């Protein structure tokens, strides 16, 4: 008994030591990533919550004001204006992007000669920065040396000195066109992966059964694309809710400051008015909105799955 | 099949092809035109740059006036391009190193709280950095990293981590364990094993991580705007907003076009050369 029992014991000991040293190695490998995430992500997130309960000027001592920053929001009409402007922008931008991305995705789905070149070309604006695209388009839309006003004048759409960024509606339309140009290739590629995941023999079978092109699209393609559509929708909505660059660069907040998005408003509160506590409280609200939007969209996706 | 139907089918194919490529070419024009317009206009002479852009090409011969003018803003275009390059390339190098190690650790080792750590890193995706900029600004100040390109780089690396670690873990998961065991028997250990044996095998993953890190750092605007306060530290997008806003003198549209080109061309070159890796990353990000 003694020998047979002793042997496994003798073997087990060094193995356990080896395992724990391997454990340490694993932790060592991920340590740099964890340290970075802790300093530049976890601490800032917790700090945002802490700061949001304070009156926190850039210079001078912060003081605890409890929920003061949060109650202040309810009477802050400029914040509610920023909220409704962001909602309006998100709605219009998302509709515009999807309305164009879907036909483009169907177009580049064809396996024909030259189609990969089209895919590449439609995608090119995506890899350029939003700030870069905004600068490019603010020049195109500029009244004196830009491209659009002479063209619009040529077609008789506008008068001599139509400044595309001077009125709310014109500036808004210009920004939407810019964003669609910049983003649509991305949504197109996401939708394309969804389209390509639909088995070809399924559509073929439906065709043989006499389903029309529209019926195949409505009853086959759309339901099978549900997950992809939801993903593209979440990405598009989240991106729009966080919009900042285009409003800051193209219109500096727009005519009569009507183009202040939520992130722009937080930027103004924190880094122009230096009310860092209020800015943090607004950030928390923004975060809550984003989480709520994602949950709603995921929930809509689930409801569809049960049917 | 009769000759007539054959002919009809051929005709339909021809017109279908015409319709297809007709649409493709027109759509391509709309996507490409803004780039060409800015590129051509940036080559017009200084006096011409402030006039309406029809025709868009330089009528007085090609000139680099706009680029020279751009150089007179801030600390000179070279300085700001260098800032952008420095931040972007450091972000690439650090992101690759950190995510390579982390991806290896997550793929090959078992340790306590492994899943917690992994979820923590991935969670960075759920909370957009725009909502933590205010405290980030204060924390960087406390660390003495405010208004520094090093601080900005570390922030960018952190923003890249969820995608990059996920990507690298999957890359390591795809490498058969037998290769590693064979290398161990041959005497390769730890870092040497990782660099000599495994790195070449996960190179496509590294390329993907590097491209995304570069483009995101090169194009990022809001964090740079907030975290950099000295003119000579500005990255290109921050410099260009100052030029566009006329904060550095009257708005010079020729300089804006030239600046747009300086910011655009590296992105397009990288994308066109390394499309395969870029698309791979996009799919991995989308499917997740």
From TrEMBL, chain A:
Belongs to the binding-protein-dependent transport system permease family. Its main location: membrane. It holds the Pfam family BPD_transp_1. PANTHER family: ABC TRANSPORTER PERMEASE PROTEIN, DIACETYLCHITOBIOSE UPTAKE SYSTEM PERMEASE PROTEIN NGCF. PROSITE patterns: ABC_TM1. Keywords: Cell membrane, Membrane, Transmembrane, Transmembrane helix, Transport. This is Sugar ABC transporter permease. GO terms for biological process: transmembrane transport. It is a multi-pass membrane protein. It comes from the Bacteria. It comes from Devosia ginsengisoli. Residues 83-297 form the ABC transmembrane type-1 domain. GO terms for cellular component: plasma membrane. It is found in: Cell membrane. InterPro entries: ABC_transporter_permease (IPR051393), MetI-like (IPR000515), MetI-like_sf (IPR035906). The chain crosses the membrane at residues 26-53, 87-108, 120-140, 171-192, 228-249, 278-301.
TrEMBL record, chain B:
Residues 81-274 form the ABC transmembrane type-1 domain. GO terms for cellular component: plasma membrane. The keyword Cell membrane applies. InterPro entries: MetI-like, MetI-like_sf. PROSITE patterns: ABC_TM1 (PS50928). The keyword DNA damage does not apply. CDD domains: TM_PBP2. It is a multi-pass membrane protein. Keywords: Cell inner membrane, Cell membrane, Membrane, Transmembrane, Transmembrane helix, Transport. SUPFAM superfamilies: MetI-like. The chain crosses the membrane at residues 14-37, 85-104, 116-143, 149-172, 193-215, 250-274. It is found in: Cell inner membrane; Cell membrane. Its main location: membrane. One of its GO terms (biological process) is transmembrane transport. The complex is composed of two ATP-binding proteins (UgpC), two transmembrane proteins (UgpA and UgpE) and a solute-binding protein (UgpB). Part of the ABC transporter complex UgpBAEC involved in sn-glycerol-3-phosphate (G3P) import. Probably responsible for the translocation of the substrate across the membrane. Belongs to the binding-protein-dependent transport system permease family. This is sn-glycerol-3-phosphate transport system permease protein UgpE. It comes from Devosia ginsengisoli. The lineage of its organism: Bacteria, Pseudomonadati, Pseudomonadota, Alphaproteobacteria, Hyphomicrobiales. The gene is ugpE.
């Amino acid at each position: 008994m003694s020998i047979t029992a002793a042997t496994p014991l003798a073997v087990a000991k060094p193995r356990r030591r080896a395992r724990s040293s391997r454990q340490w190695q694993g932790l060592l490998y991920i340590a740099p990533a964890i340290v970075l995430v802790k300093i530049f992500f976890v601490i800032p997130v917790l700090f945002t919550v802490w700061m949001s309960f304070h009156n926190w000027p850039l210079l001078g001592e912060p003081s605890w004001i409890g929920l003061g920053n949060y109650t202040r929001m309810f009477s802050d009409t400029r914040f509610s204006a920023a909220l409704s402007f962001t909602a309006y922008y998100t709605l219009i931008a998302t509709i515009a992007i999807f309305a164009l991305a879907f036909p483009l995705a169907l177009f580049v789905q064809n396996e024909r000669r030259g189609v990969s070149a089209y895919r590449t070309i439609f995608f090119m604006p995506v890899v350029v920065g939003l700030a870069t695209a905004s600068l490019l388009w603010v020049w195109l839309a500029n009244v004196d040396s830009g491209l659009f006003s002479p063209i619009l004048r040529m077609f008789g759409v506008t008068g001599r000195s139509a400044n595309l960024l001077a009125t709310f509606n014109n500036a808004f339309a210009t920004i939407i066109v810019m964003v669609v140009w910049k983003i649509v290739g991305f949504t197109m590629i996401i939708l394309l992966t969804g389209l390509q995941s639909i088995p070809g023999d399924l559509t073929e079978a439906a065709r043989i059964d006499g389903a029309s092109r529209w019926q195949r699209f409505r009853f086959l393609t759309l339901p099978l694309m549900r997950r992809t559509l939801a993903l593209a929708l979440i990405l598009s909505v989240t991106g729009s809710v966080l919009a900042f660059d285009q409003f800051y660069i193209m219109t500096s907040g727009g005519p009569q400051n009507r183009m202040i998005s939520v992130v722009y408003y937080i930027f103004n509160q924190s880094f122009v008015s230096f009310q860092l506590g209020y800015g943090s409280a607004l950030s928390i609200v923004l975060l809550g909105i984003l989480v709520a939007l994602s949950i709603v969209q995921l929930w809509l996706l689930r409801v569809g799955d049960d049917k | 099949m009769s000759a007539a139907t054959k002919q009809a089918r051929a005709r339909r194919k021809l017109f279908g092809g015409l319709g297809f490529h007709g649409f493709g070419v027109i759509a391509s024009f709309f996507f490409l035109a803004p780039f060409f317009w800015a590129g051509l206009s940036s080559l017009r002479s200084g006096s011409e740059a402030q006039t309406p852009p029809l025709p868009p090409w330089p009528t007085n011969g090609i000139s680099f006036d706009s680029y020279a003018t751009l150089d007179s803003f801030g600390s000179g275009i070279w300085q700001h391009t260098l800032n952008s390059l420095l931040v972007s390339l450091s972000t690439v190098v650090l992101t690759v190193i950190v995510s390579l190690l982390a991806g290896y650790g997550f793929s090959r080792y078992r340790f306590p709280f492994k899943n917690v750590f992994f979820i923590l890193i991935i969670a960075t995706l759920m909370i957009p950095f725009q909502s933590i900029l205010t405290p980030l600004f204060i924390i960087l100040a406390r660390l003495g990293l405010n208004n520094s390109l090093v601080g900005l780089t570390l922030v960018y690396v952190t923003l890249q981590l969820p995608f990059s670690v996920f990507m690298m873990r999957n890359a390591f998961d795809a490498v058969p364990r037998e290769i590693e065991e064979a290398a161990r028997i041959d005497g390769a250990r730890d870092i040497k094993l990782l660099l000599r044996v495994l790195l070449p095998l996960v190179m496509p993953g590294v390329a993907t991580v590097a491209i995304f890190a570069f483009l995101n750092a090169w194009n990022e605007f809001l964090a740079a705007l907030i975290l950099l306060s000295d003119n000579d530290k500005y990255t290109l997008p921050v410099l260009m907003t100052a030029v566009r806003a006329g904060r550095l003198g009257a708005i010079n549209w020729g300089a804006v076009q030239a600046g747009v080109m300086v910011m655009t061309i590296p992105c397009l070159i990288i994308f066109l050369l390394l499309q395969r890796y870029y698309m791979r990353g996009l799919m991995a990000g989308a499917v997740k």
